[in-house]
Amino acid sequence: MPVENVTASPKPTNHVTHLECALCNKKFNAGEIHNLCDCGGPLLVRYDLASIRKTWTRDQLATAPTSMWRYSPVLPVTDATSIISLGEGMTPLLPIARAGVRLGSSKLLLKDEGLNPTGSFKARGLSCAVSMCHQLGVKKIAIPSAGNAASALAAYAAAAGIEAHVFMPRDVPQSNFIECKAYGARVTLVDGLISDCAKIVAARKDAEGWFDISTLKEPYRIEGKKTMGYELVEQLGWRVPDAIFYPTGGGVGLIGMWKAFDEMEELGWIGSKRPKMIAVQAEGCAPMVRAFERNEKRSEFWQNATTVAAGLRVPKPLGDFLILDAVRESGGVAIAVSDTELIDAGIRLAEDEGIFVAPEGAACLPALERLVKSGLLKADDEVVIYNTGSGLKYLDAYATRFPRSAAGEQDKLGGLITPR
Ligand SMILES: Cc1ncc(COP(=O)(O)O)c(C=O)c1O
Ligand SMILES: [Zn+2]
What spacing in Å lies between the alpha carbon of 408 and ligand 1's midpoint? Predict the structure, then answer.
């Protein structure tokens, strides 16, 4: 069901001016269904920020809804009754001092996106994109996904009463498969990666009447994800940190935050300072790190991608050029860590801080340690790590470190009240 009270204040007003291709700058009308530009570039939503600035101030957020829809004047939904919200956003920004001491970083914060509906930041993008689908009358949506985006689509489509068709790698985490089934999505497991799933959706969508909601192949998921940037700055008292570590698969969260910072500057909410954007990848799938190190503008397809951080298994991000631009402009880097390092780091963080992060988020910790040692970051820089999902979604990955003995299995079957 659409939720109406989430937009109590401020109300969305139609400040979207147009959509613009990120590659060739061609303009498209807003308020229509769109996928990519004819040139293959992703479309970005543009707003009349000069007008918004006159009527929307930071102070008004004091009474705004406690979800990402508090930023609705810079979100594309114009019909408030179309907003499909499950309470996404306004996730905690937590100091993690003990982990900071261990990693050599004295002002370390963690933005815990694992507390979103469906346990990952993907809820933000899909809340926004499914709301737009609802507003534009879309009846069937298809998604190729590494896992968490499929879970989020399945949930928001269920809430919107829209049919969801999900394509995921066969070895997707069990949580994603079960969630999608429970939310009533039509699930296809594919022998391959997200890129193979994307090919199937592209080939079948016209005949099936599906809207292809692949990340960046439509303009609205990134708008939801950009609220991670607005929210962070609001939580920090209207300043940006010195560095942001973001686990990068398709990189849309990173691109979205970068867009948010520019918008906030135009709104007069922040100055020209930007955080160093650190794109963190897994060694088994690191196309952005390779392109960054070779000083290339675009990435090359990463063959035989493997990592337990399933969300990072994106062999060729569509928005690679936007990720690289943001990382370079910000003075950041792209950096890869091994699966062993990231699982170790996830367990250490759980022990140190009581926060159980997704392997993707955990990857940021060894990356931070390395960049402090290398001197790119100072020990007293204010650093924010994005934990993009809950560790509870990755029990299969963490279970390799906590094998259960045969006796343990018997206990599980018999339970505590069974006499032995
Ligand atoms: C937990 C998690 N972290 C990070 C990512 C990568 O997201 P992005 O496309 O924004 O790079 C994903 C994508 O599936 C994910 O599920
Ligand atoms: Zn174009």
Answer: 34
